[in-house]
Amino acid sequence: xxxxxxxxxxxxxxxxxxxxxxxxxxxxxxxxxxxxxxxxxxxxxxxxxxxxxxxxxxxxxxxxxxxxxxxxxxxxxxxxxxxxxxxxxxxxxxxxxxxxxxxxxx
Length: 106
Fold this sequence. Notes:
Blueprint: H1 2-22, H2 34-65, H3 71-92, H4 94-105
Helix pairs in contact: 2-3, 2-4
C-alpha cells in the first residue's frame, strides 16, 4: 500500500510540475530561413555519416587482422574499407555539397 501511495505522489507531482514547465515561453532559436535549416541538417547528417565511416574503417581493420589469409575475408575487408572511405568523404564533404546545391537553387 505504501508503494502505491509513493507512486501516486510522484506521478501527481510530475504532472503538476509539467504544467508549470509548459507555461513558460520558449524563445525561437531555430533557423530563420530554409538555407540555414538545410545547412544545419546537412551538418548533423554529415557528422553522423563521418562517425559511422570512422567506425567502419576500424571494423575493416579488424577484418584484415582476423582474415588469417582467407581470400574471401580479405575481399570483404577491402570492400568494407572502400565503402568506409567513400562514406567518410561524403560525410565530411556534406556541407560543401549543400552549399554548392543551395548556390544553384538560388
